[in-house]
Amino acid sequence: MGTAKVTCARCAVGGERYVGTVKDVAIVGGGVVGCAIARELSRYRLDVCLFEREVEVGFGTSKANSGIIHAGHHTTPGTLKADLVWRGNRLWRDLSDDLGFGFLQNGDLTVAFNEEELQTIEEIEEIGVQRGVTGLELWGPDRIHRKEPNVSRDALGALLGPTAAVVNPYEACFALIDDAVDNGLDLRVGAGVDDIEVEGDHLVVFAEGDRTPVRAVINAAGLFADRVSRMVGLDDLVIGARRGEEYLLDRRLAGIVEHTIFPCPTPTSKGVLVIPTFDGTIMVGPTADPVDDKEDLSTTTEGGDQVFERARRLVPGISERDCIAEFAGLRAIAPDDDFVIGPTSVPGFFNVAGIQSPGLTAAPAIAELVVGLLTTSGLDLDPKPELVTPAPRPVRVSELTVPELEMLAFRDCRYAHVVCRCELVTEGEIADAIDRGARSLDGLKFRTRAGMGRCQGGFCTSRCMQLLADAQDVPLSDVTKRGPGSWIVREREEVV
Amino acid sequence: MTGLSVRYDVVIVGGGPAGMSAAIGALEAGADRLLIVDREIEVGGILNQCIHNGFGLHHFGEELTGPEYASRLLEELVGHEIDIATDSYVLDVDALRTVTIASPSTGITRVQAGAVVLAMGARERTRGAIRIPGTRPAGVMTAGLAQKFVNQLGYLPGRRAVILGSGDIGLIMARRLALEDIEVPGVFELMPHANGLTRNIVQCLHDFDIPLHLSTTVVGIEGRDRVEAVTVAPVDDQLQPDLSRTERIECDTLLVSIGLIPENELSAKLGLRLDPTTGGPIVSSTMETSRDGVFAAGNVVHIHDLVDFVSEEALLAGRCAGEFATGSARPADNIHLVPGANVASIVPHTISSDREHTVYLRVRRSMERSWLRLGDVYEKRLRYVVPAEMVSLKVRPRFLEHFHGDSLRIDIEPRDEQGDE
Ligand SMILES: Cc1cc2nc3c(=O)[nH]c(=O)nc-3n(C[C@H](O)[C@H](O)[C@H](O)COP(=O)(O)OP(=O)(O)OC[C@H]3O[C@@H](n4cnc5c(N)ncnc54)[C@H](O)[C@@H]3O)c2cc1C
Ligand SMILES: Cc1cc2nc3c(=O)[nH]c(=O)nc-3n(C[C@H](O)[C@H](O)[C@H](O)COP(=O)(O)OP(=O)(O)OC[C@H]3O[C@@H](n4cnc5c(N)ncnc54)[C@H](O)[C@@H]3O)c2cc1C
Questions:
Q1: B83-122 residues touching A, CB cutoff 8 A
Q2: Homologous superfamily of A397-478
Q3: What pTM does this model have?
Q4: Per-residue b/e over A343-352, b at no fewer than 16 CB within 10 Å?
């Protein structure tokens, strides 16, 4: 079909990109779903590109969530979400082995405080067992207090889901996309798609003045999937937003719980959780409030009060005094409250929309499903004979022992240069993140944790900015928090 | 800098005014193998970014800028064989006083210290600590970071900046921004009183017509990429905002100046006992912490409003560390100081009846006229006390001649008009 094999310019070894006049697949949206699909497709002899309007991937909902890889017993049966969640859980484990991002199988514990809730957790166990979730276990109060001494003494029982895990969702996005790029993905960041036209037997994607003809478009644009589908004249998809606020606590509380602690779910929500993040800090949230404005990422006083009140019911030692940061994310909600994945009446245009919670968990399973759909639609999927070995997980100095650090610093002195004191991040790690594609302060933060600790960048912001500015050869005033418009400082105006 | 030695009499963590003053004290005590470690390129600590006047009136008897004050201290050290490792970060201090240092020039090094002085200073509280609702755009930063941008890096934080918090850094920055032609629509303070020194309210706000709104706070931040506006509201006496009386202020920057927190990561790792009120280690009258041979001084112990007191405290810590390292010691403390009425914190936490001490107090509430009472052994009149200004008290051996207890309460109580005037 007129494709020629060329060697990927971005990677030194073996990466193959198949380039034709018409690309095979364009993915719109570089959230975890788009990244997972891109990574899956990069294993085949295809010419694939991904358009992301933000400066880096994962900057939408995929960076602002609870980071839980659910086991699946909490998801309402009879939905597409429920079909994909357990498979996703299994796949994440393999992905983390292959790509080496932070993944910790800490298990979850759903706590019941009265007879009715005890009944509910038994029902959830039943759902889980039917879904194939392994290792579920009902605990009595003694067991709870022995294993999780900081969980409320009022707990009457709990359901353990040992296969639940936590990841750094942004780290996962970066790992997926870096691997896809190494294997030939054409990644376009800062490239919002403004229009898609049908032209003969293919589609043409317009982004920031560029015109890209493609055979298939995967609409993984999250909250804006409805806007993208309207570009090809499909008006039936409407995506609403449900906001969730999360609150991060000081490292002091690390270890207060080991499992992710869930209250008993209600029909509409999983409730407010106490989450030990992969990085060892504690996070509490989320809320669930419908909002009209799909860019409204504000946190609210009421939301915060609600989160702390509910979290305290589960783990009484939690207090807002320990809050170091907060954020909000928006779940993309389709009218049926379920994922919308499949072909549309426009040939070659596929929706992967309404990917609300547990979308992070389901993402790798969604990617498999999409590959299946593309095959069915007639795309030739021919596996590449050889794939580039994934880049090793970036070094984290904070995870090293002193002798290990000594060795590393001996080889590269930048690893002995502390840039972020709270999270112990060195210049070596910052430089590596910039090499891997970080181009904004948030990008650095999400890749290295610089600025995520208790001083929230008070100390390292200027140093990180300087390293970014030096790497990009621009003045500090051109460094942004997360892309155009989010400038941090300006130059003094010369008085003429 | 060339390689470090393996052993030092005293290793000082942090080269701000506390660290440098401690070095001077240690030299006075006869310790001569000293190492100061600082993670910045230059010693001087926070003083390097404080280019305004107002330092040194007590200690040097004249008004200096921050960098001038720092270089005065440095001059006192010149001529002594002191190692100063800058761009070097202390990763760890252990119970045997082995200090682990990371530096791009020397890699990871361990040195053995006869005594250690912790002088890591403080960090600023951030937006997250007070949960300001709203979005998270660029343009929200601590006042100290803004100060660094303006004074050290030569960049401006924005065009129109609202300042939350009337701490000294916020006040100084209000004036600094005004001088840079950045509009400052107001400084907003949650409490009914300002948190900075009175002289800063006058010189930084009044002289520049910048309004100070007490009992008011920021209740919202708007903007996707960059701050577009903030919303402020008055608070009641429970500090709860009245959301029916909000005002929206367009601006592109919000500086937060809501206090400093002693930087005690290393202290916590070392297992030092900390005082939950000050956030710093519990110290004896020699500024020794709960670990033998580990001393502390300056903002790492408690937040000071004047650098002069930092120097005074650190000289003492340095002297005592030097004495410890060279094998002499002072009599142990025998009296606990206990915060009483309207006293939030006291440093040091213990004293000894055989010598004179300077004791620093912070009050909880402002009081026009008051009595300061040290148990029932001593009392003195104070004209007015405010939380923003530290109260210092000289405790002399003669106060304690007839005292046989082991703890003394310090109270600051209202002074009745007729009774004593
Ligand atoms: C508070 C909260 C907590 C959650 N917790 C969990 C959890 O613990 N576990 C779990 O499994 N799930 C969780 N979720 C759900 C999960 O975060 C989402 O399902 C997942 O991130 C969705 O990924 P996505 O790629 O579909 O969307 P996004 O990450 O939003 O990606 C869509 C991307 O498309 C881009 N885009 C939009 N329009 C265009 C355009 N025109 N051109 C180019 N690019 C465009 C956007 O910039 C964005 O980067 C949570 C969600 C929230 C809000
Ligand atoms: C904006 C502002 C205005 C002020 N105005 C006045 C004024 O007008 N008059 C006045 O008298 N006082 C003023 N002060 C107060 C005075 O500057 C401080 O009290 C004083 O600097 C505190 O001294 P320090 O040495 O304890 O801390 P710092 O000056 O903060 O020094 C601590 C040093 O330790 C280093 N450090 C920390 N951890 C490590 C580590 N692990 N390894 C290596 N190094 C480390 C830091 O880099 C820093 O250099 C002002 C302060 C500020 C911030």
A1: 87, 89, 91-92, 100, 102-108
A2: BFD-like [2Fe-2S]-binding domain (1.10.10.1100)
A3: 0.90
A4: ebebebbbbb
